[in-house]
């Protein structure tokens, strides 16, 4: 991916170059002659440290790129993963925040940039990704055309955790805390339930539209603001239901202003301490594989040697299975540990793509030229 479609700020480029100058030292000759060796597989020493491959990878520090601020969900994840991985890696692991990528094509933009950096085509640089968010970008933005990418272009190292969306309701609604009763009420009273949306085409909105299509119901939709603002409005009675994040909903649930109806994804019951076990939407609607939510992990540039990708996968897997990392991640409301390899990540994308296409087409939100 070599297309460059935006000017980088001088400050951002200078900061990135300063970091990269100290982290990636492989020569142009090493980059151009790297080949895959099927026998060059990851090996852990007796002390638990992952050993370099026979071709010497990695010779110098690795970098995880975050397309957001340091204190964002992805920024915190990258730092916790880097800390866990550094304890078993033969080289240091650094984190580079590039929030300007988040205003364009997110992880796709980061990967396009990484591919042009020294060491990027060797696996020395990676990026944090969340799915199916990056898949939806292929439909709702011109990234596929501008950067020449597709679902198959996402070179997944490993996905390590999932965070569902939660469907919440104002307290005191006629359906109580039952998702099934809410759907039954919606069928009997078409368009009466007030749904506060994150916005057409957003992941939470696609999820509820998908469920509404399956159940054959309609809602009275208005667009809210941030997740916190939506929960505040819901708690004040300005709406009836919303789809939000567990961390944003939790304080309002604890205060009794909002109740949990159900959650997205395949974890059943919903993964969090909500005071009672709530069945997920998939089990209630008969969905075999529910892709909605945020499944987070690490990706690398296309074309890096497969032996390097497998080495990085072994590193991420081992780091994400450490007790310290699991404790840190699962202390965040709704986070569940879930490992998906490259093939499974592609299946997750495919599960979301067709449904998201249909919904975005109905909403008139498809990017021009996008096809199914």
TrEMBL record:
Keyword Signal appears in the UniProt entry: yes
Cited Gene3D superfamilies: Bordetella uptake gene, domain 1 (3.40.190.150), Periplasmic binding protein-like II (3.40.190.10)
Coiled coil region boundaries: none
UniProt xrefs under PROSITE patterns: PROKAR_LIPOPROTEIN
Keyword terms of this UniProt record: Signal
Highest taxon above the source species: Bacteria
InterPro entries in UniProt: BUG, Bug_dom1
Pfam family, one: TctC
Residue stretches spanning the membrane: none
Signal peptide positions on this chain: 1-21
Signal recorded as keyword: yes
Family: Belongs to the UPF0065 (bug) family.
Name used for this protein in its record: ABC transporter substrate-binding protein
The organism of origin for this protein: Mycolicibacterium iranicum
Taxonomic path: Bacteria, Bacillati, Actinomycetota, Actinomycetes, Mycobacteriales
């Amino acid at each position: 991916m070599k297309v460059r479609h935006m000017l980088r700020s001088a400050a951002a480029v200078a900061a990135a170059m300063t970091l990269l100058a100290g982290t990636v030292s492989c020569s142009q000759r090493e980059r151009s002659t790297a080949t895959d060796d099927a026998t060059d597989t990851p090996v852990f020493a007796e002390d638990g440290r992952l050993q370099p491959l026979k071709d010497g990878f990695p010779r110098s520090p690795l970098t995880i790129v975050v397309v957001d601020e340091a204190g964002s969900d992805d920024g915190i994840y990258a730092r916790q993963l880097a800390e866990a991985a550094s304890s078993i890696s033969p080289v240091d692991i650094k984190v580079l925040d590039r929030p300007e990528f988040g205003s364009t094509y997110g992880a796709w933009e980061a990967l396009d940039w990484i591919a042009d950096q020294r060491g990027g085509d060797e696996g020395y640089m990676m990026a944090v990704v969340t799915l199916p968010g990056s898949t939806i970008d292929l439909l709702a933005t011109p990234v596929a055309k501008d950067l020449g990418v597709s679902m198959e272009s996402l070179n997944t190292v490993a996905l390590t955790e999932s965070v569902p969306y939660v469907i919440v309701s104002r307290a005191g609604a006629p359906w109580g805390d039952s998702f099934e009763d809410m759907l039954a009420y919606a069928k009997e009273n078409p368009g009466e339930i007030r749904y506060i949306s994150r916005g057409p085409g957003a992941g939470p909105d696609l999820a509820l539209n998908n469920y509404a299509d399956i159940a054959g119901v309609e809602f009275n939709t208005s667009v809210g603001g941030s997740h916190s603002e939506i929960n505040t409005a819901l708690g004040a009675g300005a709406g009836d239901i919303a789809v939000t994040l567990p961390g944003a909903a939790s304080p309002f649930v604890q205060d009794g202003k909002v109740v949990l109806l159900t959650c997205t994804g395949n974890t059943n019951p919903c993964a969090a301490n909500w005071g009672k076990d709530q069945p997920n939407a998939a089990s209630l609607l008969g969905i075999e594989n529910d892709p909605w939510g945020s499944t987070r992990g690490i990706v690398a540039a296309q074309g890096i040697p497969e032996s390097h990708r497998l080495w990085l996968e072994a590193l991420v897997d081992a780091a994400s299975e450490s007790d310290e990392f699991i404790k840190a991640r699962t202390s965040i409301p709704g986070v569940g540990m879930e490992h998906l390899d490259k093939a499974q990540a592609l299946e997750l994308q495919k599960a979301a793509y067709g449904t998201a296409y249909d919904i975005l087409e109905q909403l008139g939100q498809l990017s021009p030229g996008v096809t199914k």
